[in-house]
């Protein structure tokens, strides 16, 4: 519905008084109106045709999190596969033995220490 000429004249007069009385408020309202126009018009002005939109912060955080999780899983898989390969070649712990066994204490001591008793 269109405004009548009297209403448009009164609105223009109110706008002029607002700009004269409080220029900061007028600038804020104009900025808000510009944002609304851009959002309704598809988000791009004529000069912004080639520019792409930046991703949201949450999208970046999610992407970085996935990369870190994938790196962690890959690292764990590499560690497990290297351990299994070392065991198969005889460099790792023997099959069925989970803890290292210590030799008996008297056999491990040098002869000098045994004779000093």
From TrEMBL:
Residues 36-56 are annotated as: Disordered. The chain crosses the membrane at residues 60-81. Keywords: Membrane, Transmembrane, Transmembrane helix. It comes from the Bacteria. Residues 36-51 have a biased composition (Basic and acidic residues). Pfam families: DUF3040. This is DUF3040 domain-containing protein. It comes from Spongiactinospora rosea.
């Amino acid at each position: 519905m269109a405004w009548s000429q009297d209403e448009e004249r009164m609105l223009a007069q109110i706008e002029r008084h607002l700009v004269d009385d409080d220029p900061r408020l007028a600038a804020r309202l104009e900025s808000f109106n510009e944002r609304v126009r851009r959002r309704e018009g598809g988000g791009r002005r004529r000069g912004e045709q080639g520019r792409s939109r930046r991703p949201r912060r949450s999208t970046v955080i999610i992407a970085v999190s996935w990369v870190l999780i994938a790196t962690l899983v890959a690292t764990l898989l590499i560690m497990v596969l290297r351990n299994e390969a070392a065991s198969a070649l005889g460099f790792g712990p023997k099959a069925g033995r989970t803890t290292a066994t210590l030799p008996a204490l008297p056999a491990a001591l040098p002869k000098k220490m045994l004779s000093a008793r």
